Amino acid sequence: MKTYTLALIPGDGIGVDVTDATMEVLDVAAAKFGFALAPTTFPWSCEYYVETGKMMPEDGIEQLRPFDAIYLGAVGWPKTVPDSVSLHGLLLPIRKAFTQYANIRPHRLLPGVEGPLKAEGFDILCIRENTEGEYSGAGGRVHQGQDNEVATEVAIFTRKGVERILRFGFEQARARRKHLTSVTKSNAQKYSMVFWDEMTDKIAAEYPDVTVSHMHIDAMAAKMVMAPQDLDVIVASNLFGDILTDLGAAIQGGLGFAASANICPDPSVPSMFEPVHGSAPDIAGKNIANPIAAIWSGAMMLDHLGEKTAATAILSAIEAATAKGIGTRPGASSTDEITAAVKAALEA
Ligand code: NAI
Ligand code: MG
């Protein structure tokens, strides 16, 4: 039997609850579809930081490297550890060390879920560049505190980085409805974004079966609200993708439904799967966190590992649960009830 090794980092707050829920569902899928999951749980979290002074051990990355995939619940507990420390001590180093350059987030309305828009039937895959661009960390401040103070934040776009994220997007579009929208602001940002546009056209030539649109970020923000059903795959830089995926999460009904994957297509290093939401200290320990975003992220992990039938079945089970109204409204169903409903639908 095929066995996949998983590094589980439940993290803090509801991260722990939704990781447990996800593993319950994945275990049912494994039994049903004839593969095995071998999870190892790592206690790396803010609690771990309080005990040890580190978010993960010195050799944490090396400990993760041999796994087939990493699953992360959520990390952060601002009461005891500043968010800048918890984020930069765990999540960001993992994304960087394993070159997880594609952050992908599906946005669609599950049956029974009411989003804030009238739009129905949208099914968008947002692909955000995850390693460079506006979040490269290049820049500086001089004359701090003086009248002539200067701050710069330099967006870095490399040919390698832009090409690989666009190519990844075209592959995804090819496997879906064959439409890709590249999001830039090349009217105002005349170097990096014009370069991005040129790269899009160059790579588009390799994918004649995929139709391509170019859109500016501001127009895209409006489009996602006015006509999200016209969109298929969206590819955007780190900053633009960050903003659009929050918008995407909102139109799909909120953070309880927003799943994500941090992908490095090179199978020699693990990719990482996580719900978009954080540790939600306000509802932690109350058994009311919605585990759907987390379970959906788990399905994306199985899909990445090659268990496509199991991944599709989990998605159908989530839909069967929400179609009955389970997990569709905040607080109406408990974490356990939603998990049980998804498991039951998967077993049926
Ligand atoms: P958050 O996502 O934890 O919570 C925002 C709001 O959404 C809260 O009212 C929360 O109760 C609600 N919410 C989130 N997920 C939910 C779910 N599954 N079901 C029902 N309601 C849900 O964001 P917040 O409060 O800004 O951050 C809390 C901590 O989480 C911080 O330490 C932050 O740094 C961290 N964080 C970690 C992330 C990660 O590990 N990837 C991502 C975002 C935040
Ligand atoms: Mg964000």
From TrEMBL:
Isopropylmalate dehydrogenase-like domain segment(s): 5-342
EC number: 1.1.1.83, 1.1.1.93, 4.1.1.73
Entry-linked SMART domains: Iso_dh
Cofactor(s) needed by this chain: Mg(2+); Mn(2+); K(+)
InterPro entries: ICDH/IPMDH, IsoCit/isopropylmalate_DH_CS, IsoPropMal-DH-like_dom, TTC_DH
Catalytic activity of the protein: (2R,3S)-tartrate + NAD(+) = 2-hydroxy-3-oxosuccinate + NADH + H(+); tartrate + NAD(+) = 2-hydroxy-3-oxosuccinate + NADH + H(+); (2R,3R)-tartrate + NAD(+) = 2-hydroxy-3-oxosuccinate + NADH + H(+); (2R,3R)-tartrate + H(+) = (R)-glycerate + CO2
GO molecular function: tartrate dehydrogenase activity
Keywords: Manganese, Metal-binding, NAD, Oxidoreductase
Family note: Belongs to the isocitrate and isopropylmalate dehydrogenases family.
Protein's recorded name: D-malate dehydrogenase [decarboxylating]
